[in-house]
Each structure stands twice: as structure tokens, then as C-alpha cells.
């Protein structure tokens, strides 16, 4: 039971106001003029040329000619559904976010699952990370948790994002291969940017071929901050845990399905919801005291590292139920704009340089993808609470702001910022102390690229290890450059000699040269007194 009982939540009611059902209606032009004919253009004579004056023809064709919008520069292929989130326990000890306080409130959500590298028309079951982006329509405005199904990332600094994406997308000379990890530039990037070692272990594992969107974990990846009413902050990592458990395909199944049913994951999610089998995910948090920032043996600002769950358990705090398919793919799924910068009071950022760069990139890309600065007015992106500010005009403005005051400060309209008090709820950034010299370099604390990759490998069962070896062998087997193949063998000797030896044989490379000379020590486990929960 999704608990909706026919009741519409605030987002559903808002979207309803924009819905139009054309069934049984007489056709009109966009100006509301009834048309008498829709199959033949207006011609001069029986067999004569089409006339310029045919406004109906021109309107219909022009609209068609302009139907496409750019696909997302990454995560182009996605599928989204509506749902609700409900909290299990009050989190006010850690955060003042209102939707994380009251266990009786059901917050509407919109969730878009996606692949990363494939184009809009690519297959669902390819080897790739999956996006898991959630928009919470809270009473304090939209909060977006824009995550992936893998807890770490390829790079540490956002300035490298264009490089990693260029290398992973189809090669620019011939646009081959589609959505694949099996080509020279992918592995050349990996070998020359070795901070990717850990993420690539996940990508070569069964996690990168999930059985269903309903059976994937989700991770916020970065370290964020919770800030409570008293202004006290804790570091936090976000997790989604699927109630159906985490399941993957074996590689052969994924391959076959990409041919038999390239929409496999879409069909699976759509049908589950149509049949009332509502996917559920529990929201979990790992929480770290600010004083313990340096006690994990890793830098918590480095997105290539996770916080071991045995050291910092995931505390389950609520559940999301996905219970409604969209009415219109373009209007909702394609036009949805997720952005890490959409936060509510009580949730804040850290200095993770990947996170900081993302804060720029999402809004920037959406300005072009969705045609200008008013895309927050598109129904799927509107908050369920009203928005008021002095921003005006721009392409496709829909709000008719009345009155002559469009500036701050003023005495004529009296529209002012809200204080940060509990009642008023104005957002205040966490007052972290920041100082330092300007520097463009990798922090020393970001240089351990292999220890968690090794832990990942060591935690795998023999079957999972076999799958990983087969994945490296298959993907690298498609790489034309023998030098790149060898570089990867030598690189992965730092993760596991067994692994590197096993796939080196299958790809015609020499056994690893280094003997793991670069092996770095595993992160020290947290000692008991450092563990977190108070
Ligand atoms: C989508 C940039 C890292 C998850 C996107 C988009 C851009 C982008 C430009 C397209 C957005 C749109 O057109 O609406 C970046 C940059 C990154 C980065 C610059 C690093 C520097 C990450 C990471 C994650 C992630 C670490 C996961 C934690 C997603 C998801 C989407 C997305 C889930 C799809 C959102 C949707 O469903 O519409 N990213 N990204 N990205 N990104 Fe990132």
C-alpha cells in the first residue's frame, strides 16, 4: 500500500493544473482557431503549389521542426517516476531540514534513473554507472539529491570532468563505440589518471550491470553537511538502499538484453508501477562528527573514497515509495532539471572540489538545454511553495509579476529576505572557517589511489572476482593500442597482482612489471574510540 488512497499530494495537484486531455476534442491551431482539414495543405489549384498563406501548414511544420531539445551532455538516457518520501525518525539532532523532522509528513519526490555515457537512444543494460537523481518537493523549496549507483567517482576535481567525459563517450572521429567501456580513449584516460582506479573496479564489477532500477543502491557520493537549529554541523554521506535488495545481471544476460529489449530497464520500472509493485528505497545516512574529520585515514573531501560502512554504519532514516508513472516523457522526464545547488536549510556543502564544480555545471548546462533562465517555471521543476524575488523577464517567462518594484532594497513593496529563524527559515550558509594560499595542485591527502580499490577487490567472492577479471579482459580486449593495454596491467598491479596477472594473459599483454611497487597501505580502520555515533 503506497498510502496515497487516491489522495493527491501537493506536487500532483500542481501538475494537474497544467494537464490537457485532447481526447474527443476538435482540432484547433495554437491560437485556438478550429481547423476544418488537417490532411491537405492549401494549394493554388488541384495540382498547384502550396501557398505561403497556409498558416495552418506553417504552424504545424514549424512546431515539428523545433520539437527536439539537446539531450543532456551526460546521463542523456534516463527514465523518471513520481513518488513520496516519509521519514522514520526525527533527525533534528543533526539537521534543521523540515522534511527530515516530522515523521508524519509525506514529501513528494521525482526520481530520474539514467545511464551516464550513452546517448538518448542507447540501450539500457550496458556496462556503465547509473544515475539516481531525486528531487524532493519540500515545504521549504526543492532539495535535489543527485547521486549515482556507485559510491565513488572517477576523478577528484571538477576541472577534469570534460576530460573524463570526452574520453568515455564515443570517439570523436567516428562516434564509435556507443555507450561502451571497450575502447582506447576510455582506457587511455584511466591509465593516465590513476585516481580512477577505485571507480573502475566498481565499473568492471557486476554493480555496473544492474538487474533493475528497482534493485540498485544510490549514493550521494560527496561528503555533505547537516546543520542543526543550533548551527552545529556534522558531515554526512547519503545512501539509498533498495528494499528488493541489490541485484545484477551476468554479463551475457546484459549483452543479450541490449539486443532483445534495449528498453529493458524502462519496461521493468514502468510495468512494476503500473502493476502496483511500487519500488521502495530506504534513505540512509552515515554521520561523522566534525572533530573526527581526519580520523578515517582518508580525506573525506576526496570523491574517490567511501566511508567504510563497518566503521561508520549506515543509519536508515526513512523510505521512498515510487508509485506513479509520468503522463508525458518530454514534459516531465526530459525537462526535469536536477541540481546539487538546490538545497534547503539544514543541508550544506563541503569543500570537495568535485562537488564545488558540480555546483556550477548543472545550472550552467540547463540554461542552454532548457532554453534560458526561466526553466524553474516548467511544471516539473516548480517548487510546491511559491517563489518570490526580483528576477524578471528572459525567454519563456510565464509568471506575470505585478507591480513596479523589481529591485532590492526598497520601501515601496517591502519584499525582504527572510531571517534565519526557525519560523522564517531563511537559508544561511554554514560558517566554515576558510583560509589558505591560492594553489593549483593535488592535495597530498588526495594521492592514495589504490588502497580502497584493493579493499574492494579483497571483499569480492570468487565468483565476483571471476566476473571482474572477465570484464577487464573483454573490455581491454577491444583496445587497439597494446601500449594502453600494458599500462592498465601495470596500473592494476597496484591494486592486486592476481587481478592484473589474470587479465594480462587474456589480452596478450606482458605480466605486470612493477610487482605492485606502488602499493599503498590500506586505510587504517577507525579505532573504537573514534567511532561516530554519539
Ligand atoms: C547529469 C555534470 C559528477 C550524477 C549531469 C549533467 C551535467 C553534469 C552537466 C547534465 C545535467 C542536465 O543537463 O540537466 C557533472 C560534473 C561532475 C559530475 C561537472 C563532476 C565534476 C557527477 C557525480 C554524480 C553525478 C559525482 C553522482 C554523484 C549525475 C546525475 C545526472 C547528472 C544523476 C543526471 C540528472 C538527471 O537525471 O537529469 N552531470 N556531473 N554527476 N549527473 Fe553529473
From TrEMBL:
Positions bearing the 3'-histidyl-3-tyrosine (His-Tyr) cross-link: 339-362
Cofactor(s), names only, from the UniProt record: heme
UniProt region (Disordered), positions on chain: 1-21
GO process annotations (BP): hydrogen peroxide catabolic process; response to oxidative stress
Catalysis: reaction(s): 2 H2O2 = O2 + 2 H2O
Residue ranges constituting the Catalase core domain according to the UniProt record: 28-416
UniProt GO MF annotations: catalase activity; heme binding; metal ion binding
Residue spans of biased composition, Basic and acidic residues class: 9-21
UniProt keyword annotations, A-Z: Heme, Hydrogen peroxide, Iron, Metal-binding, Oxidoreductase, Peroxidase
Domain of life: Bacteria
GO cellular component: cytosol
List of catalytic residues: 75, 148
E.C. numbers: 1.11.1.6
Amino acids binding heme: 72, 112, 161, 358, 362, 369
Function, as annotated: Decomposes hydrogen peroxide into water and oxygen; serves to protect cells from the toxic effects of hydrogen peroxide.
Family under the similarity heading: Belongs to the catalase family. HPII subfamily.
Name of the protein this chain belongs to: Catalase
Species this chain originates from: Oceanobacillus chungangensis
Residues of the full protein shown: 2 to 535 of 682
Amino acid at each position: 500500500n503506497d498510502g496515497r488512497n487516491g489522495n493527491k499530494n501537493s506536487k500532483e495537484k500542481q501538475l494537474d493544473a497544467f494537464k490537457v486531455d485532447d481526447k474527443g476534442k476538435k482540432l484547433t491551431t495554437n491560437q485556438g482557431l478550429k481547423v476544418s482539414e488537417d490532411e491537405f495543405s492549401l494549394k493554388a489549384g488541384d495540382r498547384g503549389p502550396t501557398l505561403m498563406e497556409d498558416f495552418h501548414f506553417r504552424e504545424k511544420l514549424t512546431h515539428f521542426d523545433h520539437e527536439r531539445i539537446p539531450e543532456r551532455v551526460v546521463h542523456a538516457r534516463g527514465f523518471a517516476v513520481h513518488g513520496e518520501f516519509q521519514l522514520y525518525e526525527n533527525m533534528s539532532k543533526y539537521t534543521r531540514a523540515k522534511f527530515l523532522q516530522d515523521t508524519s509528513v509525506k514529501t513528494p519526490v521525482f526520481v530520474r534513473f539514467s545511464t551516464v555515457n550513452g546517448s538518448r537512444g542507447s540501450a539500457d543494460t550496458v556496462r556503465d554507472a547509473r544515475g539516481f537523481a531525486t528531487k524532493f518537493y519540500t515545504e521549504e523549496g526543492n532539495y535535489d539529491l543527485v547521486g549515482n549507483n556507485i559510491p565513488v567517482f572517477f576523478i577528484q576535481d571538477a576541472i577534469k570532468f570534460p576530460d573524463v567525459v570526452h574520453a568515455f563517450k564515443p570517439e570523436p572521429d567516428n562516434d564509435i563505440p556507443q555507450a561502451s567501456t571497450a575502447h582506447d580513449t576510455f582506457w587511455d584516460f584511466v591509465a593516465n589518471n590513476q585516481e580512477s582506479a577505485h571507480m573502475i573496479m566498481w565499473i568492471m564489477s557486476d554493480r555496473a550491470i544492474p538487474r533493475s532500477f528497482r534493485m540498485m543502491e544510490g549514493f550521494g557520493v560527496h561528503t555533505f553537511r547537516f546543520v542543526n537549529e543550533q548551527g552545529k554541523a556534522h558531515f554526512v554521506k547519503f545512501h539509498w538502499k533498495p528494499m528488493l535488495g541489490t541485484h545484477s545481471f551476468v554479463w551475457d544476460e546484459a549483452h543479450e538484453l541490449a539486443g532483445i529489449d534495449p528498453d529493458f530497464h524502462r519496461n521493468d520500472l514502468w510495468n512494476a508501477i503500473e502493476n502496483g509493485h511500487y519500488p521502495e528505497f530506504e534513505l540512509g545516512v552515515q554521520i561523522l562528527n566534525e572533530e573526527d574529520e581526519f580520523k578515517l585515514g582518508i580525506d573525506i573531501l576526496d570523491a574517490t573514497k567511501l566511508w567504510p560502512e563497518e566503521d561508520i554504519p549506515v543509519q536508515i532514516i526513512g523510505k521512498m515509495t515510487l508509485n506513479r508513472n509520468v503522463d508525458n516523457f518530454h514534459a516531465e522526464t526530459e525537462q526535469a532539471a536536477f541540481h546539487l545547488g538546490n538545497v534547503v536549510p539544514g543541508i550544506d556543502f563541503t569543500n570537495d572540489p568535485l562537488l564545488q564544480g558540480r555546483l556550477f555545471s548543472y545550472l550552467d548546462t540547463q540554461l542552454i538545454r532548457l532554453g534560458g533562465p526561466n526553466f524553474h517555471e516548467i511544471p516539473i521543476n516548480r517548487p510546491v511553495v511559491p517563489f518570490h524575488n526580483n528576477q524578471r523577464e528572459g525567454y519563456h517567462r510565464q509568471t506575470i509579476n505585478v507591480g513596479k518594484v523589481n529591485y532590492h532594497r526598497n520601501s515601496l513593496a517591502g519584499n525582504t529576505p527572510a531571517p534565519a529563524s526557525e519560523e522564517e527559515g531563511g537559508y544561511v550558509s554554514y560558517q566554515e572557517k576558510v583560509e589558505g594560499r591560492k594553489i593549483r595542485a593535488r592535495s597530498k591527502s588526495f594521492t592514495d589511489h589504490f588502497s580502497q580499490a584493493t579493499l574492494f577487490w579483497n571483499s569480492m567472492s570468487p565468483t565476483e572476482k571471476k566476473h571482474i577479471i572477465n570484464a577487464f579482459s573483454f573490455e581491454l580486449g577491444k583496445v587497439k593500442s597494446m601500449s594502453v593495454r600494458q599500462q592498465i596491467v601495470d596500473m592494476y598491479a597496484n591494486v592486486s597482482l592476481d587481478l592484473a596477472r589474470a587479465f594480462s594473459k587474456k589480452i596478450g599483454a606482458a605480466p605486470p612489471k612493477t610487482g605492485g611497487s606502488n602499493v599503498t597501505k590500506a586505510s587504517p580502520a577507525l579505532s573504537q574510540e573514534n567511532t561516530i555515533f554519539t
